[in-house]
Amino acid sequence: MDGFIVYAVTNRNLKVTDRLGLSYRTPNELNNIIDKELPGRPQFKCQDLVIAGETLQFYYRDIIPCIRTLYGDPEFARDLVFAPERHYTDHQRTCRVYSEMHTGDWWWSVQVRSRLLDVFQCLHLVIDIP
Questions:
Q1: For the chain, where are the alpha helices, taking DSSP H only?
Q2: Average pLDDT by consecutive 10-residue portion of the chain (130 residues)?
Q3: pLDDT of residue 59
Q4: For residue 60, which phi and psi values (nearest 5 degrees)?
Q5: How crowded is residue 69: how many other Cβ atoms within 10 Å of its Cβ?
Q6: Taking a C-beta distance cutoff of 8 angstroms, is the pair 82, 67 a contact?
Q7: pLDDT the model gives residue 129
Q8: Which residues, at least 6 apart from 84, have a Cβ–Cβ distance to it below 8 Å?
Q9: H or E element: which one contains 48?
């Protein structure tokens, strides 16, 4: 009887996945599709790390190819942010909202500071200050 229940549950789950029309049936098949069939995605690399005498596998991707992939894919164009923003809950701007990295103070100060430095460098060249 226990074997029948397991078969019935498994059979019912298979029917759900069949109705979804997925191109995979198991997590391993999904990982294989992600790693080998999707175009333009940098491959994962694996490195063994020894921490406190225990060897752990660390999976990672090189950041530069990842950035190239994100910037080169038109599907991500609407989601990429290149400048800081300040969001508020009211028109009087009394309550600021911090929700993403580009809404924080750090990005604002770094980007504004770099723009000011660019302006000063341009002025230095134009005025020819020694």
A1: 2-20, 27-32, 63-72, 105-127
A2: 47 61 78 73 89 93 87 83 88 92 84 65 54
A3: 93
A4: -155, 170
A5: 16
A6: no
A7: 47
A8: 102, 103, 104, 107, 108, 111, 112
A9: strand 45-51
